[in-house]
Structures are given as structure tokens and as C-alpha cells.
Amino acid sequence: MTNEPLARGHNSFTEAQAKARIEKAGYSSVTDLVLDKEGLWQARASQAGHSVNVALDYKGNVATR
Questions:
Q1: Taking burial as the number of CB atoms within 10 A of a residue's CB, which of 3, 32, 35, 40 is the most buried?
Q2: Average pLDDT, the chain
Q3: Containing H/E element for 43?
Q4: How far is 30 from 26, CA to CA, in rounded Å?
Q5: Residue 15: which of 56, 59, 65, 61 has the closest Cα?
Q6: How far apart are CA 23 and CA 15, in angstroms?
Q7: What percentage of the chain reaches a pLDDT higher than 90?
Q8: In this structure, is the dihedral angle defined by the CA atoms of residues 15, 20, 2 and 59, taken in order, positive or negative?
């Protein structure tokens, strides 16, 4: 997980790869996964019992939104 701004651009991660990256970053129950027009995978997920919005950039960085 990163606190730095996510990089926008062409994202080549598949939906399954994006979900796996988000889970590897410590999130669970990843749902509503969509690739937005800026090249960021957006999703809802759980972390420490809380529901959060997360995003994944084309570099593999994950951040809460």
C-alpha cells in the first residue's frame, strides 16, 4: 500500500490480477472491481473490519481512496 498519488495511464492488469494485487496489499472481500477511464482499478474492500474504497495503478501500487 502507498500513500503517494497513484499513477494514471494504460493499465495492463487483468481483473483477476488486479484483485490479487489488492488482496496481497492486505485487503479482503474485494468487490465492485472496475477499470476507470484514467487507468485505475477501483474497488470496495475490507481492511481491519472496515469497508474502504481502494485503487490500483498500472505500476501495481494500491491506495485507499
A1: 40
A2: 94
A3: strand 41-47
A4: 11
A5: 56
A6: 12
A7: 91
A8: negative
